[in-house]
Amino acid sequence: MPKDYLIEWKNRIGEIEASKIAIQACRKGTGLHELSEKFLLNDNNYKNNSMPSDIEKFNKIKPLLLKNVKEVYGIELPLFSKILNTAGRTDAVVNWNGILSILDYKTSKWIKTEDQIESYFIQASTYAIMFSCMYDIKITQIVILMVSDESYNPLVFIKNSKDYYQKVIDIYLKQ
User: Fold this and answer.
1) What phi and psi values does residue 77 have, to the nearest 5 degrees?
2) Which of 55, 56, 76 shows the shortest CA–CA distance to 47?
3) Strand, helix or coil at 157?
4) pTM of the model as a whole
5) DSSP conformation class of 154
6) Residue 131: which residues within 8 A CB-CB, separation 6 or more?
C-alpha cells in the first residue's frame, strides 16, 4: 500500500532515527507474536526465554485469547493469491466466538483509533480473501488485537472483511 506519510516521516526525522524506531517496533511485535503463537499451540513453556516486557504485553491479551478463541486452525499460515499478485502470512486463523476469523496482533506506542488503522483491516481482509481462494472456505470476520504502551487494556477491533474487499481490489488490481 502507498505510505506517503511514512516517507514524509522518515524525511522529517532522518534515516538513522527512523531506522532505530522501526527496529524497536519490530522487536516489540515479534515478542508478542511469539508468545501468542506458543500459547495458542498449547506450549506449556511459552514464557521461557521471553523478555519481561514481552510477557507484560502478552498478559494484556491472554484473557482475550482464553475467552474468545475456541479453536485454532492455523498459525503463521502462508497465503498467496495469483489474482491479487500478493502473498503474506496471517498471524492466526481461529474460531473467535463461533466465527472463523483472521486474527492479527499489533503493538503500538500510542492508543490508536479505528480511523487510524484502516490499513490493518485491509491487510487482514487481504488474508481473508487469500485464505478463501486457497481453501474454498470463506472468512468474513477479522480481529485485530492491539497492545499499546499507553494503556493496560488492549484494544480489540472486530470487522467484517467484506467491508474492505473493494479497497483490497482497488489496491491490488488497479496498480
Assistant:
1) -75, 120
2) 55
3) strand
4) 0.84
5) P
6) 77, 79, 90, 93, 102, 137, 139
Q: What DSSP letter does each residue of 51-117 carry, written as one string? A: -HHHHHHHHHHHHHHHHHEEEEEEEEEEEEETTTTEEEEEEEEEEETTEEEEEEEEEESS---GGGG
Cα–Cα dist 90/111, whole Å? 23
- The torsion angles phi and psi of 153, rounded to 5 degrees, stand at -80, 130
User: What are the mean pLDDT values of the chain's consecutive 10-residue runs (175 residues total)?
Assistant: 62 71 58 91 87 89 96 96 93 98 93 93 96 96 94 94 94 79
Distance between CA 65 and CA 84 in Å, rounded? Answer: 31
